[in-house]
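How it folds:
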Amino acid sequence: MQILIWGGAAVTLAGIAGLMWCILQVAAAKRENLEEDALRVRLARLVPVNLGALFVSAIGLMMVVIGIALG
């Protein structure tokens, strides 16, 4: 079960890295002082990436919990 735990930890870290990337992209977009419509379009493109990263990190945490429960 060690493989499941460490694999889940790696998947979780990948998801957290994706979330951090999204945060940095939003901060950069806000610093550019874009008009409201342009900013809205730019942020709308980040929503699927953000949700995907959240899903990946949740799956990783589930892997860790299952590994602990089975081990």
User: Anything to note?
Assistant: Residues 19 and 69 are 27 Å apart (CA to CA). The mean pLDDT is 96.
